[in-house]
Each structure stands twice: as structure tokens, then as C-alpha cells.
Amino acid sequence: MTTDRPTTLDSPALPGPRQAPAATGPAAGPRRGFLARAFGVTAVLSAAGSALGLLRDLLLARYFGANQGTDAFLVAWTVPETAAPLLIEDAMSFLMVPAFALALVLREERPDGPDPVRQLVRATLPWLLLALSTLSLGAALGAPRLVDLLAPGLADPGLAVTCTRITAITVLPFGVAGYLAAALRAHHRFTAPAGIYVAYNLGILGVLLTCHALWGVRAAAIGVVFGSLLMAGLLVGPFLRRLRSGSGRRDRARRSRNALVLIPLALLPVGVFTLTRQAQVFIERFLGSALPPGTISHLNYAAKVSQLAMTAGILICTVTFPLVARALAAGDVTAARDRVEKDLGQAAAVVLLGTAFLMACAPSVVALLFERGAFGPRDTAATAAVIRVYSFGLLAQALIGVMIRPYFSLRPVVRRAGDPSPEDGGRRLLDWYPAAAMAFGLVVTVTVGLLATPRFGALGLAAGNAAGITTTAALLLHGLVLRGIPLRLRRVLGGHARLLATAAGAAALGTPAAGLAADPLLSTALGGLTVALAFAALGTGLGAHEVRGPVRAALRVLGPVPGPSPVADEGKPPHGC
Question: What's phi and psi for 574, nearest 5 deg?
């Protein structure tokens, strides 16, 4: 494989995109109920992984508090924090789910021909392993310089360098896990990919529980490596079983003269966007290292809690992304647009419900989760304040996660041999639009951070994060239309406005309810229940479809409800969820 011209893989060619095909064939959605089951499995396993990750953070807070040692480890954790989105959920998924989706479309169109899935694996996996090994070694060797760049004001850089060299090993298993997970999701196999973070956090917890007294904070770094190996190991068996399904075509593959074109340069915009997005963390660590010890830790704990709401929203498009990719691979732009619009609304509803809860209950949530051992009341107050500021950017974070998947699916790393070459300048420049939008958002993040940090400390950094990511989301919403997915923006923005009003009202009602009790558990329960009920009532009253449908469905369990069925369109693939 070269980086200056396309590489060809044997495979039959398909016709170019079309606007409105019939909902049959490979682009058609799965049977009714499939998405609900897939989402249920993914949600349960992801929730388990998140719960274990939260337990991991609780143990870090209990054993080490928020001090120079945890700051050093969290700087080292920048390596797996960067590698995970780049190699597991974001860049690798953006690249390989559409690639495998196209290969599966080709397999279905020509069942007696060569297997494009196996050809894609042969052409990409060896190069990936070589690149990952090189990156891992480079990160380990460059650890001193990396720590100096990320946190020049760190009190204990030696410990950070040691932990960074340990965590650098994770690059290889993370990349393998991301590749295998993308292949399985394209095959509509979600159970094993959804379980990888359960395996990951179990590995960390095992080492942390048994070795924290012996190795100190280094035990957490070693646990990260052990957990990453468990991630990759979990996926190998399911991947090999899927790969064997096309083994009968192996001998004919080399004799085919048609080609599926692999475009290595398509990697660059995806990788740059993901790294640019992760640069928000770099900015926080860089600016936070000059603030009092413990600031980086407060930002980390706040981000972990805040992102639980955002992660719940992203689960929706994790399940539906393969459907969008396969619809676009078969040229069904209309079905892809409808699915993306629905994902934007559903993700916004989930995230804004979580945002309202965090706004109302942040102090009690942090006290309930973290305030024990070395983590004291002052840490609770500082972390809760950061959570509330972070929450202003959660909707934008989720919407970017939804929009970027179809954006890159329109120019995947592979294309049909019969399609026109995408070498024209205008379309190639659009490949870089997400990275440019993210870079502009980072300028906003840095500007707000520099202006606000001297006066507000960690809250200034969090405000810069929220302002920058919201700017990027607005730009990407426009970019998705430019890319060729004709979103009905008035409908999308109108739905989001109703949801924002719903969340604001729920937070306003939930905050005094949470303040009625001093006990953190009771305060969280009172505030959370008030937020949930207010969100349901206000959303239904304001006509937010994403709220009204589930509310009516819940009421149907108790008795008949007049009006149209909230699931009337569930049987129309691929729009049902």
C-alpha cells in the first residue's frame, strides 16, 4: 500500500450513488425490533463498562486523592485517552465501518464472486499492525518530551514520564480492538464490541486493587495496559468467526479483474480531526498545570461524570452508524438523511436530560461518588462547579459524535472501482472541513481559557471547553449539508430548541428539590426524580417528539392513551429504533 495513489482490491464494482432507491437489498434496514435489541445490549454493556470506569475513578480518588501523584498519572493517561478515541471509537470507526459496510454490500450483490471482506482485511490489517507498533514505540521513547509539552509546570515530571512509558504500550491493543470492533459492527454484531470497556476496566481494577499499595499510582498505569490487552482479546474470536463466513470465495478472489479501490490518503482528514478534537484535553492539561496542585484532577473527575450523559446519547448512533454507512454505500441518501435526523433528535433528548440532572444535582452527585478517603469537601465543591460549567457543552459533544459519522461515510477509505475518482479539488477540500471546524473551535477554547483562567481558574478552562465545542458543532451542522446529506435544518433546529427549553425548565425545578436534603443520596434521588418528571412533562407539553413518544409509550403500559401511536413508524426501516 502506498500513500500517494489508490491501491486496488479485487471485487465487483457497483453503480454510483442514487437519490431514492427502494428500501430493499443491502441498504434496507434490518427487521423491526433489531435496533431496539442491539441498542439494549449495547446500552447494558456500555453502562456496565461506565459503572466500572466510575468505580476505577472512585478508587483513584480514594487511594490517591487529588494531588501531585494523580496529576502525574493523568498526564500519562493522555496517551490512552488520545489513543482510545483515535483507535477505538472515533477515527478507526469512521474509517473502517464504512469500508466494511461497502465490502458487505459487494458481497451481497455478488454472492458467487470473491469475498471483498477478506480482501479488505488482507490489504489493511498488516499495515495497521506495523503502524501501531511504530506509534507505541515512539510514544515510549519520546515520553520525557511529551510530558514537558503537555504539562510543563508539573511538580513531579519523573513519575509522569514513567507512567507515560507504561501507558504507551496501549496503542497497539487499542488499535487492534478498534479495527475488530468496526468489522463486527458492520456485520451487525454488537455484543462483543459493547463489552470491550467492561474487560478494559476489569483489568484496571484488578491491578489497582491488588497492587496499589506496592506500586502506588504506577499500578493504575499498568492496569491500563492489562485492560487494553483484554479488550483486544475479547474480539478476536468473534471476528475470526465472521471472517470465515466468506472463506469459500478465497481461491476465486485472486482471479477477479474488477477492483475495490483503497484510498490511503482518506486516513489523513479523519486522523487530524480526531487528534484536533482530543487537543481540548491537551489545552486543559497545559493551562491547568500552572494552576494549584489538584486542578487537573478536579477537571478529570468532572469530565468523567459529565461525559456519562454524553456517552448515553452517543450509544444511539453507535448502533445506527452501520445502517447509515450501508445506506450510503448503496446510494440511499434519503434513508441516511432520515436516520441522521432521527439520531440528532434522540441523542439531544438523552444528553439534555442528563445535562439537566447534572445542573441540578452536581454537588450531591460528586459527594456521593467521590467524597471519601483523600477526597475531601473542598474537592467536592471544586469538582461540582466544573461539572456545571462543562455541562453547557455536552449537547454539542453529542451532536458532533452523531454528525461526523455520516460525514466521513460519504468519502470512505475505499470506493467502488466504477465510481468517479474523488480527486477533484472541491470535494477533497471538504474532507478537511471537520478538522478546520474543530481547529476554529480550539481557537475559541484557547481564547476563552486564557481570558478566564487567571480570574476563574478551572472554571475558566471548563468554560473555554464548552464554548469551543459548541462553535465546532454549529460549523459541522452546516458542513453536513455541504457534504451532500440534505438535512432539513429548520426541523432539526426547531426540535433542539424545544428540547433545550425542556432541559432548562427541568434543571430550574430540580435544583431546589435537590437542596431539600443534606444527605447526598437523598438529595440526588429528590433532584433526579424531579428533573425526570419535569423533563417528561415539559417535553410533552412543548411538543418535543423525542420526549412525547417515550412518555406515551410508558403511559400505554398503564392504560390506553388517546392520540397517534408513538411507535407508528417503527416498522419503516431504517428509521425505527
Answer: -100, 30
